[in-house]
């Protein structure tokens, strides 16, 4: 009896193509759940698990990037040009930074308990325009309650 080895799916399925197409339209760096809601408008019968599996495949095949920003849910980015990201500490939105700084060197870093450092990344935290405006109006209301 011949053994059958399960080969990972490598062809561009319709579901995978739609997921990739919708992700490429977005500059918001959506979570898998957010992208699922968008893709369902075109493919109503798609499951969240299918979206997750295809995002994993697209990440592993180098077609998209998974953003593993500290303190937040994984987000996905179809822009594979060199750039970095800033995350709003208030609402969690993510934006691109196109003047990327050089990643910190990992050569010759010795850490007790770690055999080696694999990679480094630069993360930025900030405050988006919408959250800054909300904070400013809340501060104004606190200082000048009779003007609200």
Describe the structure in your own words.
By secondary structure, this protein is of the alpha+beta class. Helices cover 32% and strands 12% of the residues. The protein has four helices and five strands. The protein has helices at residues 14-25, 32-39, 48-60, 129-143, and strands at 65-67, 75-77, 84-88, 94-97, 124-126. The strands form two sheets. Strands 4-3-5 form a three-stranded mixed beta sheet, with no helix packed on it. A two-stranded antiparallel ribbon has the order 1-2. Strand 3 (84-88) and strand 4 (94-97) form a beta hairpin. Helix 1 (14-25) packs across helix 2 (32-39), helix 1 packs across helix 3 (48-60) and helix 2 (32-39) packs across helix 3 (48-60). The model is unreliable at 1-7 (pLDDT under 50).
Order of helices and strands: HHHEEEEEH
Query: Count of DSSP E strands?
Result: 5
Q: What is the topology, as strand order, of the major beta sheet?
A: 4-3-5
Radius of gyration: 21 Å
Derived structural class: alpha+beta
Mean pLDDT: 87
- Helix segment tally: 4
Q: Give the amount of beta strand, in percent.
A: 5-15%
For the largest beta-sheet, the strand count, sense and barrel status come to:
3 strands, mixed
CA(first)-CA(last) distance? 80 Å
Which stretches are poorly predicted, pLDDT < 50 over at least 5 residues?
1-7
Estimate the global geometry from the Cα principal axes: flat
Helix content: 25-40%
Provide a concise account of the structure shown.
By secondary structure, the chain is α+β, with helices and mostly antiparallel strands. The protein has helices at 14-25, 32-39, 48-60, 129-143, and strands at residues 65-67, 75-77, 84-88, 94-97, 124-126. The strands form two sheets. Strands 4-3-5 form a three-stranded mixed beta sheet, with no helix packed on it. Strands 1-2 form a two-stranded antiparallel ribbon.
């Amino acid at each position: 009896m011949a053994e059958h080895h399960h080969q990972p799916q490598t062809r561009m399925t319709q579901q995978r193509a739609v997921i990739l197409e919708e992700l490429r339209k977005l500059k918001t760096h959506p979570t898998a759940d957010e992208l699922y809601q968008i893709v369902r408008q075109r493919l109503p019968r798609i499951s969240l698990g299918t979206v997750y599996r295809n995002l994993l495949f697209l990440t592993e095949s180098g077609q998209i990037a998974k953003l593993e920003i500290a303190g937040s849910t994984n987000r996905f980015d179809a822009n594979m040009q060199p750039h970095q990201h800033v995350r709003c500490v208030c609402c969690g939105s993510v934006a691109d930074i196109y003047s990327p700084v050089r990643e910190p060197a990992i050569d010759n870093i010795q850490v007790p308990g770690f055999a080696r450092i694999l990679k480094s990344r630069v993360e930025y935290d900030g405050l988006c325009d919408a959250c800054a405006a909300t904070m400013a109006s809340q501060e104004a209301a606190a200082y000048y309650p009779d003007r609200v």
